[in-house]
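Internal tracking record. Fields below are filled automatically when a chain is submitted to the structure queue. Please do not edit lines marked as system-generated. If the sequence contains nonstandard residues, flag them in the REMARKS field before resubmitting.
Queue: standard
Priority: normal
Entity type: single polypeptide chain
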Amino acid sequence: MRNLLLSLALGLSTTAAVAQLQVNPQLGATFVDLTDDGNGVTTKAAFGFQLGVDLRLGERLYFQPGAYFGRNATVVKISALDTNVIEDNLIRTTAKVKALVGYNLIHNEGFKLRVNAGPTYEALLSVDNKDNKIDFNKDDYNGGSFNMDAGVGVDIALFTVEAGVSYGITNAYKDRSEFSSDAKYFTFYATIGLVFGSGMK
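SYSTEM-GENERATED OUTPUT FOLLOWS
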């Protein structure tokens, strides 16, 4: 994570002097599932949220670093011999940093259609069980996940909306025999926000 933060800082310092800068605060919904549930475990995405800010450094082609705080929920169901089913909402608190590259497919004054993609890192801050039915905690998960993100958005004047996906590269769980060690996070997100600064024409 430190290397990623250093890369973000270096990108900001070397680009800010020559690039136009926009600030994009956002708030949105997240839906987090796992790609491989493992034996006796099923998961389903539930509603979560994220809030944070992106910077856009450049014009039509731009560097897009960002930082976000999130509370992400996943419904986990554990079945034992098909006779006993335990279900609970596991809620993860996370901090996420992004290092995306974006491009405006439509680059008109007052309207932009844009795409972005790139690596992200999401640090796990805590894990809570909504009903205390499943004995999962932070120690059962890896401390963070490297991901690849991709999104599409629309800017209309000062307002912006975006939707995208985040696919985990890092395994979600630490090595535990009762769970699949190959499970990774898969997140869908949708945000609304504002865009301030130069480069809006």
